Amino acid sequence: MMTGWIKRKFSQEDDMLVLTRRAGERILIETPQGQLIVVKVDELRRDGSVKLCFDADRSIAIVREEIYRGGTKSHDDLDDLDDERIARNIYD
């Protein structure tokens, strides 16, 4: 279990954990259930975008914010899902 050994640095503005990574480096996230999510910075592009790779159990929903919030829809069922049901239905 990873909890407790990481010294957390939070942004004063957003009360959010702030980390700096370079291409090829990874961030590990442990869920309360003990599942591990690995986020790898794959590529930093000239246009300012970042290509991220995610390695997680398929039961964990990983969705772009605009899809989660109801903007661009790439999955027909997302229109009718509330926040709690997205994780259960995103892979159906």
Q: Can you describe what's shown?
A:
By secondary structure, the protein is α+β, with helices and mostly antiparallel strands. The chain folds into two domains: 1-58, no CATH class; 61-92, no CATH class. 12% of the residues lie in helices and 22% in strands. The protein is built from two helices and three strands; from the N terminus they run βββαα. The protein has helices spanning 65-68, 83-89, and strands at 26-30, 36-44, 50-55. It has a three-stranded antiparallel beta sheet, with no helix packed on it. A hairpin with a 5-residue loop joins β1 (26-30) and β2 (36-44). It starts with 25 loop residues before the first strand and ends with a helix. 0% of the residues are buried. Mean pLDDT is 75; it is low at 85-92.
Using brief descriptors, characterize the structure shown:
12% helix; alpha+beta; 22% strand; 92 residues; 3-stranded antiparallel β-sheet; 2 domains
Largest sheet: 3 strands, antiparallel
Which residues form runs of ≥5 with pLDDT under 50?
Answer: 85-92
Count of spatially separate domains: 2
- The total of beta strands comes to 3
The string of secondary-structure elements, in order, is: EEEHH
User: Radius of gyration from the CA trace?
Assistant: 15 Å
As a percent range, the share of helical residues equals: 10-25%
> How widely separated are the two ends?
30 Å
- Strand line-up in the sheet with most strands: 1-2-3
Number of helices, where a helix is a run of at least 4 consecutive DSSP H or I residues: 2
Question: What structural class do the secondary elements suggest?
Answer: alpha+beta
Strand content: 15-25%
Shape descriptor: globular
Q: Overall mean pLDDT score?
A: 75
